[in-house]
Design brief:
166 residues, alpha+beta, 2 domains, 53% helix
């Protein structure tokens, strides 16, 4: 997403109501005026046919992302999204069946979810989220080394792991 210019920020601030709130209807109505800085923001598609295409793609993403089904992970059936949104080598976003990703590229799925968490937390960098970021890093480390994760789980439960000598 393109960044905002100082003039765009000034316009957004001027559109706040008396309590400081801002709503999309007000912003769109204002930005329709070609004399405004917001009118030039690339997020606005003023050609109605092109805007309809953009909206239809957004609608399709919304539909795809709420599609769920029961997926067996290990021996446990779980309700999960039916597809996973990934970025391919061609840098294009696409969807793959969750069962396939869980079976063939589980680490990519785990990192995809963790990346989303980190992105959300970075949008609001509050110290209350620091433990969550630490947990994300622990999950990443354990996901890439399942044996280490099993040892940590056993240690937390107070179970001593007995390994045969070679």
């Amino acid at each position: 997403m393109a960044s905002l210019t100082k003039e765009m920020i000034k316009e957004l601030n001027s559109l706040r109501d008396a309590s400081g709130r801002l709503d999309t209807a007000t912003v769109v109505a204002f930005a329709k005026n070609p004399a405004t800085a917001l009118h030039e923001h690339p997020a606005f598609v003023w050609d109605v046919e092109a805007a309809a295409q953009v909206q239809w793609h957004a609608d399709a993403r919304s539909i795809i992302e709420v599609w769920t089904k029961v997926i067996v992970d290990g021996r446990v059936p779980k309700v999960m999204r039916a597809v996973v949104s990934l970025v391919g080598e061609d840098r294009q976003r696409h969807y793959e069946p969750t069962e396939t990703v869980v079976r063939e590229n589980r680490l990519a799925l785990i990192n995809n979810v963790l990346d989303r968490i980190v992105s959300a937390v970075k949008s609001y960098p509050l110290e209350e989220f620091d433990p969550l970021l630490e947990l994300v890093e622990e999950i990443r480390a354990n996901s890439s080394n399942p044996k280490r994760a099993a040892r940590r789980r056993a240690a937390r439960k107070g179970v001593l792991e007995v390994r045969p000598r070679a």
